[in-house]
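User: Could you check the structure of this?
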Amino acid sequence: MHTTSIVIAGSLAQKPGRGGHTWVFLQYILGFKKLGWDVLFLDRLEPAMCIDETGARVPIERSWNLHYFLDVMRAFGLSDHYALLYDEGAATFGLSRPDVLERVKTSAALINVMGFLKDEEILATAPRRVFLDIDPGFGQMWQALGQHETFRGHDAHVTIAENIGKRDCPIPTCGLSWITTKQPVVIDEWPIASALGKPETPITSVGSWRGAFGPVAYQGTTYGLRAHEFRRFAALPALTGSRFEVALDIHPADAKDASLLSDHGWRLVTPRRAAGDPWRYRSYIRGSAAEVMIAKGMYVQTRSGWFSDRSICYLASGRPVLAQDTGLCDALPTGEGLLTFTTVEEAAEATRAIGRDYMRHARAARRLAEDYFDSSKVLSSLIQKLDL
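Assistant: Sure, the predicted structure tokens are below.
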């Protein structure tokens, strides 16, 4: 049977108030819709995860999780395109469980972002189960170490680690045939930002200091987190005299690191203020001069070719990106709009290079987004690779 329906499963409701995380899923949902696909987004939530905006436990009906999720669905025209599975799927918001099963059964595939969906009945109904890896290295090493069967139960495996399987990329393939892809950005949702009005407009970024996973020891090497990399570049504002600002999710226990950054000239703002929903996140990026992308040690040390879903939003907005090198040169042109670095001195020189000819780099940034990350191109290519 010919079908134009596709299912995407991912974790949005568990992370209310994280605009950047929300956009990860919106790029796929809206991108597939733009190509004419009938998209169903599946999410799940458990009672213990339901909180209000202060972090206190509340029933789901009064939870920030549910209200944030529904606000996003409504605002982006997705009211008929979602189901939120609650309490191990015993209840749903949006489509009913029977409707979900029917939609999944008649779809071309279920794309399971990081294997988030665990509902065995729904997974068994899908004609094809695709694992989408957006946090490469961790799952592969866990599986190779026998710690977790990350990829079990899927028919195809897609990763944004574009260098996986290459000689200088130590991420194990786990015997799987990986399909590589870039991440999409829906260009229409990210128009070119207006010219900068103030010379003191900062170079910015949004991110977590540590993230959800700990370091991984694999074959004699410990693969680290963003915290371990960021410390190496703490002196960047002082070296350049430029204004740097980061909306950083950093735990109070890491106060020493926060002081290290502040002492070297980084301005720290709360992620909630800069990126508390998809609209604030978009405004924050468009109001920046450029992005400084400092990656997790896992991505850097493995030369994975990883590139941030956040950075493609900067590029689309016409904002240049200073990116720590993760093996990017094998997958993307660099030097205009996207400048890479491996040391703090190289990062400082890249900062100065952007300042010397800002508009050239801004125009090049937008061209990179259009040429390499436009959702219509990226997802059309992925559809072909998956033979959907």
